[in-house]
Amino acid sequence: MTDLIAKYSGFLIITGVFLLGWLANSLTADMGQINTESPLSNGLFVPKDVESPSNHIERSQIHVYNDKIVLDIPNARWAEFTNTNSMDPILDIEANSIEITPKTSREVKVGDIIAYQPANFDGLVVHRVVEIGTDSEGWYSIAKGDNLTKADPDKIRFSQIKGVLVGIVY
Fold first, then answer.
1. Could you say which of 14, 55, 131, 140 is the most buried, measured as most Cβ atoms within 10 Å of its Cβ?
2. For residue 46, what pLDDT is reported?
3. Dihedral angle at the C-alpha atoms of 47, 146, 70, 161, nearest 10 degrees?
4. Within a 13 Å sphere around the CA of 105, how many CA atoms are in the beta-carbon half?
5. 3-state secondary structure the chain
6. What percent of the chain has a predicted confidence (pLDDT) above 90?
7. Domain range 59-169, CATH class
8. Which pTM does this prediction carry?
9. Per-residue b/e over 73-89, b at no fewer than 16 CB within 10 Å?
10. Four-point Cα dihedral 97, 160, 133, 131, nearest 10
11. So where are the chain's domains?
């Protein structure tokens, strides 16, 4: 019996340490951790739900052929980006995109990526809409770069929105 314990002692120690670590992690997993993913019954994890861009293009507007793809999008235009890193990894200087100009504020949804003209700034800012609301001046949105920790400082009025991204081509 002593020979058997000596033969497997290393295995037993490693197994015991693993089981203690697993038990400690299981007991403390829900004690104030931020952004903890919830396990499914099959052992996979479900990430936090984040608003995705709206579907601005219907399936009937997309025509795929052997030698080309045709997008039937009225008033669409091509857009490019500067290297600010604010929307990494989804948008960067090499990305090509297609955007449209929304006709009404109802066409802009939380999760959409918009190009807007901030007050007192010569260029456009391309960030994701994270909030929509109304105040005494009417409709507004709040935007934030995906790679930034804070939202943009000012409310964005519909008149400042110059485009909504409807496609990104890498």
1. 140
2. 73
3. 130
4. 14
5. CHHHHHHHHHHHHHHHHHHHHHHHHHHHCCCCCCCCCEECCCCCEECCCCCCCCCCCCHHHEEECCCCEEECCCCCEEECCCCCCCCCCCCCCCCEEEEECCCCHHHCCCCCEEEECCCCCCCCEEEEEEEEEEECCEEEEEEECCCCCCCCCCCECHHHEEEEEEEEEC
6. 53
7. mainly beta
8. 0.71
9. beebeebebeebebbee
10. 30
11. 2-46, 59-169
Token pair for 3: 């020979």
Token couple for 48: 């936090």
Q: Which residue has the tokens 């994701």?
A: 128
